[in-house]
């Protein structure tokens, strides 16, 4: 049976593309009764943080949870992009990158460190669009270089986050989402 995944739509994510990619990865998309949750996001931290009630509820259920791009940043306590609080699953503050050319937009590699999401990924190239980066943490499982080394993958128990957009990242992104779907399947 296909795992049931709910894609949270708080009005600031590329929900349609994420849903389509998860369907291809072997998930069934649902609005309730989910086995796992995905929080996609693009845009500003404060705007998104004001609409996190669904995400907080999903995290309390201790089901597999994947934050994508802004969704990963929202896993942290706060961001220098605004004043609102994040979900606080991970400690630290998201900060603006120090590069002269922002946003960091385009293809880049990820150096994985023992992540369940990385299994079977041969060429870890992913598509990025962001100007803020998550802090270092013992829960970082992937790093990327763009003028500085920054956290691009986090993993803490049932919670995962990726700074890039797997739904726009070709075969590497498809494999990563298949791995998340498999985590959800085994979590039941």
Q: Helical content, roughly?
A: 10-25%
| Domains, number | 1
* Strand segment tally: 13
Topology-level CATH name: Rossmann fold
Q: Indicate the mean pLDDT.
A: 93
Largest sheet: 8 strands, mixed
Radius of gyration: 15 Å
Strand content: 25-35%
String of helices and strands: EHEEHHEHEEEEEEEEEH
- In terms of per-residue confidence, which ranges show pLDDT below 50 for 5 or more consecutive residues? none
Q: Let me know the CATH homologous superfamily.
A: Class I glutamine amidotransferase (GATase) domain
Q: How would you describe the shape?
A: globular
Oligomer: single chain
- Walk across the major sheet and give the strand order: 2-1-3-4-13-12-11-8
**What's the architecture, going by CATH?**
3-Layer(aba) Sandwich
State the distance separating the first and last CA atoms: 11 Å
Figure out the total of helices: 5
Structural class, by secondary structure, is alpha/beta
CATH class: Alpha Beta
Describe the structure using short key phrases.
13 strands; Rossmann fold; 5 helices; 188 residues; globular; alpha/beta; 8-stranded mixed beta sheet; 3-stranded mixed beta sheet
């Amino acid at each position: 049976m296909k795992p049931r995944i709910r894609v949270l739509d708080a009005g600031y994510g590329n929900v349609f593309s994420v849903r389509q990619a998860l369907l291809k990865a072997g998930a069934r998309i649902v609005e309730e009764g989910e086995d796992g949750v995905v929080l996609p996001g693009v845009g500003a931290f404060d705007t998104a943080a004001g609409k996190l009630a669904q995400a907080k509820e999903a995290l309390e259920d201790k089901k597999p949870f994947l934050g994508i791009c802004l969704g990963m940043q929202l896993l942290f306590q706060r961001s220098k992009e605004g004043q609102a609080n994040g979900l606080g699953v991970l400690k630290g503050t998201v900060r603006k990158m120090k590069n002269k050319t922002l946003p960091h937009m385009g293809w880049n590699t990820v150096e994985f460190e023992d992540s369940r999401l990385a299994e079977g990924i041969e060429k870890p190239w992913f598509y990025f669009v962001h100007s803020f980066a998550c802090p270092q943490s013992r829960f970082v499982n992937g790093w990327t270089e763009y003028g500085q080394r920054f956290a691009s993958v986090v993993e803490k128990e049932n919670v995962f986050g990726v700074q890039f957009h797997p739904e726009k990242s070709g075969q590497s992104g498809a494999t990563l989402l298949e791995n998340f779907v498999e985590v959800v399947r085994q979590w039941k």
